Give the backbone structure.
Amino acid sequence: MNNNTDPTPPDAVPPSIATELGQLDGESLRAVLDYGQALLNSRIDPAARIEAGPNEEIVSVEDHGTHTTVIKRQDCADGCDECPHGPYLYHVRSERYVTGEEDLHWAYIGKVVDECTS
């Protein structure tokens, strides 16, 4: 589906790949994007970049391959009788954008409930 409005591929994209991509329909291009994003995510170790933010305590970090689970507690403000809050569970994965920038995507899962048997 190559036409005059197709963008010029970046120099880092080999011409043979640019030609192949230019011939794909929208559904196939979306599949290629998904696959490319999965490849990038598989090559970036988010666990090594996870740090506690201000007023946070990282309780645990566990790599699961497709994502990293992080359990953390956090303080809110001076004078709060319930601090620290949590612990809270997050799924974290690294995402690299088409611009080359990389960022951690934090997905809040919920409060961690202590399992007690009494």
Notes: The radius of gyration is 21 Å. The first strand starts at residue 56 and ends at 63. The chain is about 20% helix and 30% strand. The chain has two domains: 9-43, 46-111.
